[in-house]
Amino acid sequence: MRLDKLLANEGYGTRKDVKKIIKKGSVTIDDQVIKDVSFHVDPTQSDVIVDGIEIDYREFVYLMLNKPQGVISATEDDRHECVTDLLDLEYDKFNLFPVGRLDKDTEGLLLLTNDGQLAHQLTSPKHKVNKLYEAVIDQSITDEDIQAFREGVELEDGYVTKPAELTVQHNLEEEAEVLITITEGKFHQIKRMFEARDKQVKYLKRLQMGSLKLDESLELGEARELTEDELNQLLN
């Protein structure tokens, strides 16, 4: 890409700003000072240094976030804190967005990236990507509940969900801890599925999306880049 476009994309200012930076000799490419704003460079192959600082160029970035409650799955909002507000400033230039969404009061695994193709692959219903959640329900779970999830639950608007797996971990009269696996992501889907069974979700956390599992060492609100193995499994 053109050198001025690269610097603008990397946050060095407007095209006018970066032209001044380049023309005053502040940029070296592979140890050679470049003053031509239209110079073409492959930032993945060359060392581009601006005022002594090397540009960290990557086309795509993939972050795992342990989303806390009270934060919305959006990139900007006038009233609420967004998941992108939790990220280090170094990621601002990549224009990351959440893959799918978690409700405001839902915790757990959220992938943020600027790779639109992967995002589509993970969220498109036709790919049937499994999403695993743990939940606390306000009463015990019955065999009829499990069978209803297995067959698909009719929601209040008449929509019948795709088959889901409901596994009971602890079952008490006044509360149950469960795991739920779904392959779609309708608005408030899990809450609405339990409401259709006259039950309420007291706590909800996503543990896994496709092959990607939440790193339990991440504190709520913390994020890290995916490992090479995690990324390869997602892409393949």
From TrEMBL:
Keywords: Isomerase, RNA-binding
PROSITE patterns: PSI_RSU (PS01149), S4 (PS50889)
Classification via CDD domains: PseudoU_synth_RsuA (cd02553), S4 (cd00165)
Keyword Translocase listed: no
Gene3D superfamilies per the UniProt record, alphabetical: Alpha-L RNA-binding motif, Pseudouridine synthase I, catalytic domain, N-terminal subdomain, RNA-binding S4 domain
Enzyme Commission code: 5.4.99.-
GO molecular function: 16S rRNA pseudouridine(516) synthase activity
Enzyme class: isomerase
InterPro entries documented for this protein: PsdUridine_s_RsuA/RluB/E/F_cat (IPR042092), PsdUridine_synth_cat_dom_sf (IPR020103), PsdUridine_synth_RsuA/RluA (IPR006145), PsdUridine_synth_RsuA/RluB/E/F (IPR000748), PsdUridine_synth_RsuA/RluB_CS (IPR018496), RsuA_PseudoU_synthase (IPR050343), S4_RNA-bd (IPR002942), S4_RNA-bd_sf (IPR036986)
Stretches assigned to the RNA-binding S4 domain: 1-59
SUPFAM superfamilies associated with the record: Alpha-L RNA-binding motif (SSF55174), Pseudouridine synthase (SSF55120)
Family: Belongs to the pseudouridine synthase RsuA family.
NCBIfam families: pseudouridine synthase
Protein name in the entry: Pseudouridine synthase
Organism: Alkalibacillus salilacus
